[in-house]
Amino acid sequence: MNKISETDLILNPDGSVYHLNLLPEDIGNIVFTVGDPERVSEVSKHFDFISVKKFNREFVTHTGYLRDKKVSVISTGIGTDNIDIVLNELDALVNIDLESRTVKNELTVLQIIRLGTSGTIREDIPVGTILASTHGLGLDSLMNFYHRNLTGDELLLENNLNNYFENEDLVPYITAGSGKLLDKLCFDLEKGITVSAPGFYAPQGRAVRAEGSVQNLMKKLSNYEFEGHIITNLEMETAGIYALANTLGHKAVSVNAIVANRLKSEFAPNAQQIINEMIEKILSRI
Questions:
Q1: Which residues form the Nucleoside phosphorylase domain (predicted)?
Q2: pTM as predicted
């Protein structure tokens, strides 16, 4: 059995994974991810009790029980570069024997549930909506570095998207979320394709002082439609979560509190209320 090198999988002196500072017993098989470290406690306050609180850098983890299920919530920080760290280290915690540095014979499938904030790019989706991502569409380059296993439907949709964005020199990748989790947790929510951008300003069509090179990005995204698929919202993590979860054999779903409408230049004055509603709704369905 091949041994994973100390430089490929770095461990801390106590045996915990390098960035997350976690041991295998520190996480449950249901993992909520949030971007903001301060949102971790907004989720974990609904747990029946909390048994683990650990942090390192922007990665804060609380683990406890929600009814009879061991669950964790972890902050990822911003962007798919951080998602690369979080997903790989979560997978290592459950699927690699950290002492022998070998892959386990029996693999564990994590349920990864993103509870995030997002802005819609559709005029007909109002601020305050709770939206589930059927697919994550990445405008970043993360998945250029991984082998991917696309279904026929994903390949068809990705090819269509690449043709659609060809003139903008964008090469997006797309992955579907877990149908099982979408059906269980998001059956009554608005749904659509979520775009994950590699930045907050020009990559999301914002203009402050530096001029963006992709003209009319919001219009281009909001006008996309193919075989019933539409792009509904824009953020920075979902595509990486979906693609890496699929690559590693885990199940993932992303739920988004819509706190802005980019086409109408509206931002929710009650954003925290919308976020709280999303958290409570999803946790009640676990």
A1: 30-274
A2: 0.96
